[in-house]
Amino acid sequence: MSLSRLRRTYNRPSWLFPSEPRYFLGQRWVYVGLRTLHLLGVAGLGAGFLYPAADTTWQAYYLITILSGSILTLLFVWSSGAWLLQIAGQAILLKLVLIGLFPVWPDARMALFIAVIVLSGLIAHAPKHVRHYSQFNLGRQERFRDRQGAPAPDRNGNESRK
After folding, report:
1. Number of structural domains the chain divides into
2. Which domain holds residue 134?
């Protein structure tokens, strides 16, 4: 079976991969608030790691970073599971793993923190065609096609031309 046929016929669960991303009222402001908390947490972590601080000083910022990042991740996945297949989603999952290693591997905290910052900068400022690229579908992945391979309709019910 060819890769393109496999991509068209694979039955993805609609609860995880809706044909259109899900939205809720105020979603943009929830993202803004969570990202702001996340930046606060990352700044606190940076201060705690770059200028030696007692473990109890940076741990509050660590919790803010982990919680806000995890909630953002859950919201992205809820909106559309396609995010999990995109480089941007995979990079964020990798960042969560690296941050999760801080308490497990304390001697490497600084190196892990720097890796997270570099990864964040590269992904956040990469062009859209890079952030939304999916190696699973060998191209940009924003929405799924139906089982017969027809493009999913856009929000207005029109056939997508992407």
Report:
1. 1
2. 27-140
Tell me if 37 is assigned to some domain.
yes
* 162 domain-assigned: no
The CA-atom distances, in angstroms, between 103 and each of 14, 47, 72, 85, 112 are: 37, 17, 22, 28, 11
What residue spans of the chain are helical by DSSP H? 3-9, 27-50, 55-79, 82-85, 87-100, 109-124, 128-131
> Is 148 within the bounds of a domain?
no
Provide the 3-class DSSP secondary structure of residue 109.
helix
CA distance linking residue 103 with residue 20, whole number of Å: 38
pTM: 0.73
Which residues 6+ apart lie within 8 Å of 8 measured at CB? 145, 147, 148, 149
Record the tokens describing residue 16, joined without a space. Answer: 């995880």
Question: What whole-number distance in Å separates Cα of residue 144 and Cα of residue 151?
Answer: 7
Render pLDDT for 108-128 as a digit per residue (tens, 0 to 9): 988 999 999 999 999 989 998
